[in-house]
Design a protein that fits this description.
The longest helix is centred in the last third of the chain and has 15 residues, at 89-103. It contains 4 helices and 6 strands, in the order H-E-E-E-E-H-E-E-H-H. It is globular and about 35 Å long. By secondary structure, it is α+β, with helices and mostly antiparallel strands. A 6-stranded antiparallel sheet has the order 1-2-3-4-6-5. The chain starts with a helix and ends in a 6-residue tail after the last helix. The chain has helices spanning 5-15, 57-60, 83-86, 89-103; strands spanning 21-26, 29-34, 37-43, 46-50, 65-70, 73-81. It has a single domain (5-103), classed as Aspartate Aminotransferase, domain 1.
């Protein structure tokens, strides 16, 4: 899969200029981290969001959002939003805000 520069820019706008933010290539796309912990990732047609185990039910109930599966393994607490979901400004903000709320509970790496 290819990177999605447009989605990456939308994520940067949502994340703002927080201290501790970094970016790097990961999962065949581009990843965004806070203090070394993965917040979300972007690649063509897909937004990966880390919500934390037990925090993903609300998102999974929405259209075009599914549980992330990596190498055949379900990754509970991680969701993958398709273009219809991340293209909705309010929903994308809600997903990223929820990811930040979870990540901010984790110790820095």
């Amino acid at each position: 899969m290819a990177r999605d520069a447009g989605l990456e820019e939308l994520i940067r706008e949502e994340l703002g200029n927080r201290s501790g933010l970094s970016e790097k290539a990961m999962f065949g796309g581009w990843a965004f981290l806070l203090n070394g912990n993965l917040i979300c990732g972007a690649r063509e047609g897909s937004l990966l969001v880390r919500l934390g185990k037990g925090n993903d039910g609300w998102a999974l109930a929405l259209p075009d959002i599914e549980l992330m599966v990596m190498n055949g393994r379900a990754m509970h607490g991680w969701v993958r939003a398709g273009a219809d979901a991340y293209g909705d400004d309010g929903l994308r903000k809600r997903l990223i805000d929820a990811a930040l709320a979870f990540i901010e509970t984790l110790p820095p790496k």
